Amino acid sequence: MAGKEKKSRTPVFHIVKRDPMSWYAALGVRIAAVVAALLLSAVVITLLTKKNPLEVYSSMFEGAFGSSGRIWDLAQNIAILLAVSLAVTPAFKMKFWNIGAEGQVLISGLATVCVMFFLGDKMPADGKLPQWVLVLLMIGASIIAGIIWAVIPALAKAYWNTNETLFTLMMNYVAIQLVAYFLKKNVKSGSGKLAILEEYGIPVLNNNPYLLSIIIVALLTVAVYVYLKYSKHGYEIAVVGESVNTAKYVGINVKKVVIRTLIVSGALCGVAGLLLVGGIHHTIDTNTVGGRGFTAIMVSWLAKFNPFVMVVTSFLIVFLQKGAGEISSDFGIPAAISDIITGIILFFIIGCEFFLQYKIAITKHRKENK
Amino acid sequence: MLAFLVSTIRLGMTFLLGSTGETITEKSGHLNLGTPGVMCVGASCGCFVEYLYFTAVGIPNINPVLAVIFPMLASFFGAALMGAIFSFLTVTLRVNQNVTGLALTTFGVGISDYMIAQTGIIYTRGTKYFTAHLPVADDLGWFGEIFLSHGILIYLAIVIALITTFVFNRTRVGLHLRAVGENPATADAAGINVSAYRYAATCIGCGISGLGGLSFIMDYLYGNWEYCVDDIGWLVVALVIFTVWKPNLGIIGSLVFGALYVASSYITGVSLEDKEIFKMLPYVVTILVLVVTSIRSSKKNQPPASLGLNYFREER
Questions:
Q1: Burial (Cβ within 10 Å: 0-12, 13-18, ≥19) of residue A2
Q2: A71-93: buried (b, 16+ CB within 10 Å) or exposed (e) per residue?
Q3: Distances (CA, A) of A75 to A79, A150, A311, A322
């Protein structure tokens, strides 16, 4: 990095922390970042595919909003991503880097599937054990599974200060292998795919399979907002996140807060897993969560841990994925273009945080720097 | 048994390249969760350049040395460029490393999938140049098979790991690098250019990890580059912990990981479902190492103290 070296030898400018921006200025910076990212993506698309980028973008809109089915699908995907993002948020606010949401959601999905698979046929709707018992069991199993998966790293963090980023990352793969084990054990057909257990699952409202999950996530969004902003727990989370020493000094039991917050996180992941498996897929494979656990981290962080802003950020990401899926089929471009565009846009939005927090000041007297 | 050892070594050295690179990066205080993406880019840049080279000169005119050197350079620099993106965002723009790393993974996997789809070739022909070995190996029976039958990247992996260990422990540059990763404020006060070290370590580290991706395709999969390397990338992140940030231990650690990973295919009498449990072992072992090192909290085996934290001089 030659330019970098040069800068440090003769610092023409330096970087200082700025006062918090007004919300509209901050919004402006973010919008500018998205626009810049779209421009760069347009250049990339044109270079790679020789297609008119405007056509490509309009095809993205078509893919996301083209029909009412697509809009419902979009909304449901936003809901699931939002649910996972809500789940990771309390932990992040505490600066507990839980990157294991992928595994926590997957393991709750596995618990849900286990209930459906092993107990489903034992409970005919007209028999002695009604359907609602099954649903309750699914809810219980998925939430408990999510909590277990989240609380193991939390215990290690609280008692031995184990690095939670790496621990939760590893837990993802343990969960994936458990799912693979379950599939190999119970699916004997050649495809290796678990048949869709359509008759079991969470109830369908109003004949619309998308509706219930959307409503649940909407309620959760409000609940998490209130929990973080107005409850004593939320306050303790914020204090621990700002400074563990301060928290200890004012008498907050940090271990308890860490463990309790991860129980909340895990339970929310459990809900996400339940909705995903019990409400949408009715089956499971190792890719059911499909990277949402990781995407959720970006969603939550970009929204500065505000649940309502997360609605916007998860919309943005789901829109990009759906839209890019459409352009790949419309123009015969490899589907991977969606990941490239998503990546570019993420870089820009992540990068623009810099301009919200710092400003570049011209150094007036160069000598005083050294 | 012989086949098992050979494929353990080949996969193990892939892990070793990846983890040596990631160790260099982490020693500077950067937790780069973009490693899967970086390795994907390394693998696909290498294969892509190989493809370009072959189509440019035509199959009969291939120079076997260039057929190895071009992909390696492409792989290294492609991956290093990813490291540069990461460093630009985290060092210059000071944004969160975890988020940047995950975005980098998305981006890298996308790029490599795109390149693969673009060429429409599943197998790269280059693999025979990469797995070329000394002719003596064939005459030495099991000894030759285990120690001498591998391609250049396998030996390069060991050499790089040993050099890295030497640089970490015996040179001034290594000392500075460790200082930057442990306590950047102190390093800065001592006149070390924290940003430059972080940039350089991340770019070089990513480049080496990228070679690991190339080695996975060339040496382990025999040129089938349709495969995504990203699962391997996460194992590499695990391996760095498993080897407690020491590339020389990495040589043994990577063999252990390689063995655990391929064991299920070579052990007879294991049912299909138990194989999945086998594949879980590297992760479980890593978790155990992580927990045990944190319980013992001996100073020697800890992660770099400022791992994952950005440094801003005015924030002290």
A1: exposed
A2: eebbbbbbbbbbbbbbbbbbbbb
A3: 6, 27, 10, 11
CA A147 to chain centre: 17
Q: What is the DSSP string of B227-278?
A: S--HHHHHHHHHHHHHTTT-HHHHHHHHHHHHHHHHHHHH-TT--HHHHHHH
- Where are the domains positioned within chain B? 2-300
What confidence score (pLDDT) does residue A52 get? 79
Paired strand residues for A205: A208
Indicate yes or no: CB of A350 within 8 angstroms of CB of B117. no
Q: Does domain B2-300 have CATH number 1.10.3470?
A: yes
- Write the CA distances from B125 to B4, B63, B111, integer angstroms: 24, 13, 21
Distance CA A359, CA B195 (A): 18
Amino acid at the residue A162: T
Distance from C-alpha of A90 to C-alpha of A235, rounded to nearest angstrom: 11
Tens of pLDDT along A326-338?
777 777 777 777 7
Produce one character per residue of B213-248: b if its CB has 16 or more CB atoms within 10 Å, e if not: bbbbbbbbbebebebbbbebbbbbbbbbbbbbbbbb
Q: Which domains does chain A have, with CATH numbers?
A: 52-332 (1.10.3470.10)
CA–CA distance, A301 with B69 (Å, rounded to integer): 41
| B307 Cβ under 8 Å from any chain A Cβ | yes
Residue in B31, B284, B291 nearest the CB of A160: B291
Query: Chain A interface, mutation test: which of B279, B290, B301, B314, most A Cβ atoms within 10 Å?
Result: B290
* CA separation, residue A86 to residues A100, A166, A213, A228, A230 (Å): 14, 21, 14, 11, 16
Query: Residue B229 — very low, low, confident or very high, per pLDDT cuts 50/70/90?
Result: low
Cβ pair A337:B110 closer than 8 A: yes
Which stretch of DSSP H or E encloses residue B31? none
How far is B314 from A17, CA to CA, in rounded Å? 8
How many whole angstroms separate alpha carbon B133 and alpha carbon A169?
37
Q: How far is the C-alpha of A60 from the C-alpha of A325, rounded, in Å?
A: 8
A123, A231 in Cβ contact below 8 A? no
* CA dihedral of residues A281, A282, A283, A285 (deg, nearest 10): 30
Give the number of other CB atoms < 10 A from CB of residue B63: 12
Are β-strands A13-17 and A358-362 bridged in parallel, bridged antiparallel, or unpaired? antiparallel
Query: Is the Cβ pair A297, B99 closer than 8 Å?
Result: yes
Residue in A with minimal Cα distance to B189: A370
Q: Given an 8 Å threshold on Cβ–Cβ distance, is B114 in contact with A174?
A: no
3-state secondary structure of A15: strand
- DSSP assignment letter at A225: H
Read off the DSSP letter of residue A199: T
Burial A102-133 (b: 16+ CB within 10 A, else e): bbbbbbbbbbbbbbbbebbeebeeeeeeebee
Helix or strand run (H / E) with residue A359 = strand A358-362
Q: Per the structure block, which two tokens stand in for A41?
A: 């993506």
Single out the residue of B36, B30, B287 nearest to residue A164, CA to CA: B287
Answer for the pair A153, A233: CB distance below 8 angstroms, yes or no.
no
Interface contact flag, B96 A350, Cβ < 8 Å: yes
Q: How distant is the alpha carbon of residue B257 from its chain centre?
A: 13
- The whole-number mean pLDDT for each consecutive block of 10 residues of chain A, a chain of 370 residues, reads 48 72 79 85 79 79 80 89 93 88 92 84 60 85 94 92 86 90 80 71 72 89 93 91 87 91 93 88 82 86 87 87 78 77 85 81 58
Check: pTM over 0.80? Answer yes or no: yes
